[in-house]
């Protein structure tokens, strides 16, 4: 298993933050000009400010499964912060996992809800574009998100494995990180082994049960998940987290 990045004591995790044209990028609520201050709050605290920043980032650069043009630009800074092992590391790991597994709004809704296709075509036309153009743009954003996560995935790898005594070491963190890194395996094939090795070591039946059905488009993982579910037996959703 790959370990986290080596000592970064002399590195600034937010170096280059102000070089990104955040005001020209968008997230779920419009301009991403608020993202730099949210990332700084994660670096410097205090705890209540960091908590608010995490809440906001879970709502803007990733929103109910959707990623946005600003999202891949935030990923390298989140990975750098994660390598610093802050108190809210598990939340950052979950956010990164969800970003890597993110989708596009039009790709989900306009392509699957044919009865509402006209509505989405009108929405796109009002923005001076087309559904097809918006879906193409969303595919570009999704690819950029996965490339950004893959580039620094060593910081995420430790969250694949249960670590006794680690605060916040919960099955849902491992599931989300596994799901996200699995999406990046097309970019870095070695991550298949990371995910499969972690799944083989998993002891909580809730982790593969949560994955089951969510990775069916990745046959190499879906088969391993179903086999793991059989070996561990049914998940007890009433059980306390680790």
Structural commentary:
With 242 residues, the protein is mainly alpha-helical. Helices cover 55% and strands 3% of the residues. The protein contains eleven helices and four strands, in the order E-E-H-H-E-E-H-H-H-H-H-H-H-H-H. The chain has helices spanning 35-44, 47-60, 71-83, 89-100, 105-112, 117-126, 131-151, 171-184, 190-201, 206-211, 219-232; strands spanning 26-27, 30-31, 62-63, 66-67. The strands form two sheets. The protein has a two-stranded antiparallel sheet. Strand 3 and strand 4 (66-67) form a beta hairpin. Helix 1 (35-44) runs antiparallel to helix 2, helix 3 packs antiparallel against helix 4 and helix 9 runs parallel beside helix 11. The longest helix has 21 residues, at 131-151. 37% of the residues are buried.
Residue fraction in strands: under 5%
The N- to C-terminal Cα distance equals 21 Å
Mean pLDDT: 91
Shape: globular
- DSSP strand count: 4
Structural class, judged by helices and strands? mainly alpha
Contiguous helical run count: 11
Strand order across the largest sheet: 1-2
Poorly predicted runs:
1-9
Q: H/E element string?
A: EEHHEEHHHHHHHHH
Write down the Rg: 18 Å
